Amino acid sequence: MRLHFKQRFFSWFDSYDIYDEAGNTVYTVEGQLSWGHCLHILDAAGNHIGTVQERVFTLLPKFELYESGEYIGCIQKEFSFFRPRFDIDCFGWQVEGSFMEWDYTVTEPCGAVVAVISKELLNWTDTYSIDVVDPRNALYALMLVLAIDAEKCSGK
Question: What is the pTM of this model?
């Protein structure tokens, strides 16, 4: 399953539209005014299905993930020199990025690929392609992309 993640150009807060391969809106993401990033994920019908909330006052960036209001885990950037790495305390997944921080691979503990995330260059806004092996993991892969993109924006 391939998702296309595109940040809205004119928006006061972080806002994104996520499309499937046919161009249909699958998810929308609305930012909320708060300390740190707070991103609410809505399905195509407008129902709230998830939240990515940045924890403030941490040494390295950390984001809590919620599905339908229930805490499912967090993602935290790890200290590394050449390739960005993130520690995820749910599902046992690992995220490793390319040197330029444009491409990421999400893997299971056994090494099987869960998702491949690629940043598309030469766009006015942040735009990513998310290839998810199992469509049941699409929401979780989206949460990871939101956290990574928010971390990169905070780092600037």
Answer: 0.86
The full 3-state SS of the chain, as one line of letters, equals CEEEEEECCCCCCCEEEEECCCCCEEEEEEECCCCCCEEEEEECCCCEEEEEEEECCCCCCEEEEEECCEEEEEEEEECCCCCCEEEECCCCCEEEECCCCCEEEEECCCCCEEEEEEECCCCCCCEEEEEECCHHHHHHHHHHHHHHHHHHHHHC
Tens digits of residue pLDDT in 105-136: 999 999 999 999 998 877 677 788 999 999 99
51, 32 Cβ separation under 8 angstroms: no
Report whether 132 contacts 114 (CB < 8 A): yes
Which residues, at least 6 apart from 86, have a Cβ–Cβ distance to it below 8 Å? 75, 76, 77, 78, 94, 95, 96, 97, 144, 147, 148
Structure token pair of residue 122: 């030469």
What count of Cα atoms within 13 Å lies in the side-chain half-sphere of residue 61? 22
As a whole number of Å, the end-to-end CA separation of the chain is: 31
